[in-house]
Amino acid sequence: MLTTRQGVRLLGAGDLGEFLALADADPVVNVFPSYRARTTNLEPRWLGGEVWGRFSGGRMVAACHVGANLVPINAGPDDARAFAERASGRGRSVSTIVGPHDAVEAFWGAIGMRWGRPREIRWRQPHLQIDAPPRVEPDGGVRRTTRQDLAEVYPACVAMYTEEVGISPEEGGGAELYRARVSQLISRGWSFARFHEGRLVFKAEVACATPYAAQIQGVYVPPEFRGQGLATRGMAAVVDIVRAEIAPTVSLYVNEWNHAARAAYARVGFEETARFSTVMF
Question: How does DSSP classify residue 98?
């Protein structure tokens, strides 16, 4: 039987170095929590949540990001169950549990239905990465977007999110916040697109980045332009730009059933390095 907390405690700024050493032991898989730690200094007021660490013999052995997304970090099944024990003492505040499959499966198995029935569970999502030039010719028309492109980029982001997640990001009055997020990515130089006769025909964004890796999100081709190789050559261009200017390794994770996307990523040169799972509420 688990003992209370199992050496789990809230992390703060004083734990940043040890946390980054833990996360950066697997810097591509852990790019999101590593990025969040670097940009917030593990301060809860900037995190909009908390990060927990599990300790053994005075050493941090696993961690868990608890914000809008709950993400286990270097967590084995026992670590995940210890985090679930701590989480079970509070109401669910997260909208998604996401991370390496074994940790997410153990966490969800321990917390069960106490957090309510999930809207969907995607158990085995291939985690892909590339750290070399793409295997196909990049699309020379792909470029960073600007504020002047927002009228085309924002609707494409909404359409992609709705198609991928099953609900619109604008539901419940979320349009202003989502538009701000899209605008922020554009301002950072993390939004990429190709346009044809003024219309967006391909897009992708960098969701997070560290000195080691960048994670791509939001890859989208409008339905009327699919089947033309735009995603393959577009992603090759994104990989080239990101590896040259943001981080040396590019990663993403994709739904197991999305065979078209997986085939496009394989043609670019992405290789599977792990399996993720996502529990969505």
Answer: E
Instruction: Identify whether the C-beta of residue 208 lies closer than 8 Å to the C-beta of residue 30.
Output: no
- How far apart, in whole angstroms, are the C-alpha atoms of residue 171 and residue 168? 6
Q: pLDDT value at position 2?
A: 41
Beta pairing partners, 143: 193
**pLDDT tens per residue across span 152-190:** 999 999 999 999 998 999 998 899 999 999 999 999 999
In this structure, whether the domain defined by 8-117 belongs to CATH 3.40.50.2300 is answered with no
Give, in words, the CATH class of 143-274.
Answer: alpha beta
Domain ranges, ordered by start, for the chain: 8-117, 143-274
Q: Which long-range contacts (CB under 8 A, 24 or more apart) does 239-243 make?
A: 239/130, 239/133, 239/134, 239/138, 239/268, 239/269, 240/133, 240/134, 240/138, 241/142, 241/144, 241/192, 242/206, 242/209, 242/214, 242/216, 243/131, 243/133
**Residues of the chain scoring pLDDT < 50:** 1-4
